Amino acid sequence: MRLLxxxxxxxxxxxxxxxxxxxxxxxxxxxxxxxxxxxxxxxVSERGEVLLAKGYGFADAEHEVSNTxxxxxxxxxxxxxxxxxxxxxxxxxxxxxxxxxxxMHLSGIPRTWEGLTIHQLLTHTSGLMHSWKLPGFExxxxxxxSLDDVLKRFYEQPLVFKPGEGFxxxxxxxxxx
Length: 177
Fold this sequence. Notes:
Helix content: 25-40%
Number of strands: 4
Strand content: 5-15%
């Protein structure tokens, strides 16, 4: 397991109870780590109070670099669910509709993207290619760049299929979202 997210909800415990809970969680997670079932970083907070922030195992076993609460992980597609929820919250707030076209919210995008809907991006039916299909993407994906610069790398790429008439996983679509 590379990433574990723990959320504690409910009544706020006293400081002593919070510390006891953190100790129990740490013992449990240490057992998982020692049993070869967990490597990663864990952060647990409740109502703004950090109960546990600790790394377990190595971020890079070859070089014996330990995980810490500050370790950065390449989590890729795991963020799609949070992006989708953010879009739905914006819709609930009346700031957009999933039926809106990209042209309503973004300027300077290719003509072929203007009519794509937010819904199509959310459901991988937009026809936008998957990011990994862009020649040279792997070599440049970790190079610091602005959002606009990253998107421009894809502007000249043709749609993979006519929007709404196919399905194809598109990390690019979620990047646009």
